Every structure is written in structure tokens, then in C-alpha cells.
Amino acid sequence: MRYHRRHRTGHMLRVFCVAFAALTLLWTSSASAQDPPAASVVSDIVKEVVLDPTTYAPAIVAYGATRLDWESSQVFFQHGFVEHNARYTVSGVSDSVAISHRAGNRRIATDSLTVLVQLSLVHNVTERVIERVLIRRYPSHQKFFRVVGLVERIVGASYLSIALSAKHVRQWQENNRLARQLGYK
What we know:
Blueprint: H1 6-29, H2 38-51, H3 53-78, H4 101-137, H5 142-182
Helix pairs in contact: 1-4, 2-4, 3-4, 3-5, 4-5
């Protein structure tokens, strides 16, 4: 199991935070007497994000792919192989003894929760705020901005899902191939 998303995660989070801050400034500068109360807007955005499947898809896909990788690695650990990913070793050093199966499962769940909270939620809240700002500025194009927002959320969730899971799926396939070749399965 190998991860290299720490730097990418931090970078994406900073980009979303900057975009959110900029849009918040734009939004507050264009207030009018006909604006809905802020509490209503916030609760609407929260409801939209919570009910949107694109909020959860990347975390679920990442969890599933990482679990496939982790589960398929167990047979190798039972035969004396070591774990390459330092995050999944007892010593914290690459190519060392793997952490327990249970500890690995907890780490995978924690990583998936991090994807949900730090990436998916931030992304979808930011997109919904941008969408509302654009609709407020250009109300005659409401349908256009809603469709573009939906497409953006789907594309974003798809990209994030693939980026977080592709290496694990490949490793799972390689583990299964090697296990058959060595007669472990």
C-alpha cells in the first residue's frame, strides 16, 4: 500500500479555502434588501451538501479500494513479507513489519473520513457557494449555473475518486496475481 496524497490534499484544501474566502467577500459586497436571511442560505447549503451523493462518493471509493489492497496484502504478511508503506508499519519505516489487520482497518477508515471532511465537504460547500453567488449576480442564468455546478461536482468527485483509488486497485490486482503465482490462493 502506498499513499502520496498528503501534499496534494493540503494543496487542494488551500485552493478551496482561498476560493471560498474570495467568494464570501464577493457575496457580502453584493447584498440587497431582497436577500434571504443568512441562516436560511447556510441551512440550504448544508442540506444540499448533505443530500448530494458526490459529497460521499470519493470517500467511499477510496475506502473500498484501500480495503481491497489491505485485505489482499494480509496473505503476504502471514508468509513473512513486509509492508512498503511506512504509514502501515509498526516502526513507521518503509519495508518493515505491518501493523495489525485491525489497526490497518482503523487507519483506512480514518483516511476515508479525512477525505470526506477535508476534501469532499470543502469542495461541495465551495461549489454551492460559488453557484449561489453566480445565480445572485445573474438570476436569468439560474438553470445554466445549476447544471454547470452539478457537472462540476460530478467531475470533481470522479477525479478525486480515481486519484485516491487507482493505485490501490492496481496493487490489489497485483497482490491477487502474485498470490496465485505463489500458491497462496
